[in-house]
Amino acid sequence: xxxxxxxxxxxxxxxxxxxxxxxLESLSEWLVKALVPVTKRKGLMDLLHGRLxxxxxxxxxxxxxxxxxxxxxxxxxxxxxxxxxxxxxxxxLAAGAAAATGAADWTVTYGRDRRLALVHGLxxxxxxxxxxxxxxxxxxxxxxxxxxxxxxGLTVGAAAAYLGGDLILDRAMTVNHTTFLSGPxxxxxxxxDSDVTEGTLTAVDVDERxxxxxxVAGKVCALENTCTHAGGPLNEGTVEDGEVxxxxxxxxxxxxxxxxxGGPATFPQPKLQTRKIRGRIQVRGRxx
Length: 288
Ligand code: FES
Description:
By secondary structure, the chain is an alpha+beta fold. The chain is 47% helix and 17% strand. It has two domains: 160 residues; 97 residues, 3-layer Sandwich (Rieske Iron-sulfur Protein). It contains eight helices and ten strands. α5 packs antiparallel against α8. It starts with 9 loop residues before the first helix and ends with a strand. FE2/S2 (inorganic) cluster (FES) binds next to loops.
């Protein structure tokens, strides 16, 4: 029987067309290279990724410019010119912070996600340009022009926000990739005691996912093997000084407790309990 492709809804077709626009891949590669002097500053990147906050800084920061710029037409309607100008300016400042954090998260993306995220960033830059134009017009007393540019900037910003929502909600960017992993609820045999050695990373199958086993200072450690950042396989990474380094983007987790020691990951690596019974290692995980 002839198979027919499932028709895509219009929004999915638009997104697919947007991320396949010619030139996005080469522009992405050029930008990633141009940003190397910034991305090699690990402390700054950790700050921009939001490691200290415990999750990505970018999504909550984007609420600020959109909220401020979204309020400007209301102030225009009630005739509060000074308030509208002040909120336009504050929104532009907040947009700068949102752009810096978004760019940091973007540098550790690939393929169609990176292309769509680039369009998201370019659209937000256009929105910021329109709002700066509005601010300039308002400061020069050209209120009608300022109002027009505010609404135009808000419209472009809303379209960019839609793409940002798609990146997080559909493609799980900046989302904890271990959220739905839990258990086993009962102690489960996973390996022989002698199979787990210092300096080596062993992935074992537990409840249809992999758990990472290693030994630090004689003690067996067990962590989820899927990196919280974007799902990289930690067992293919490296061990250094009681830490595991993810092979995909270099996040570092302490093997004893899964704490994040270096980004881009912002969520700790879930730890499983371990015990030794008659020469065998058993693990037990958190409840779902
Ligand atoms: S998947 Fe990105 S650091 Fe692990």
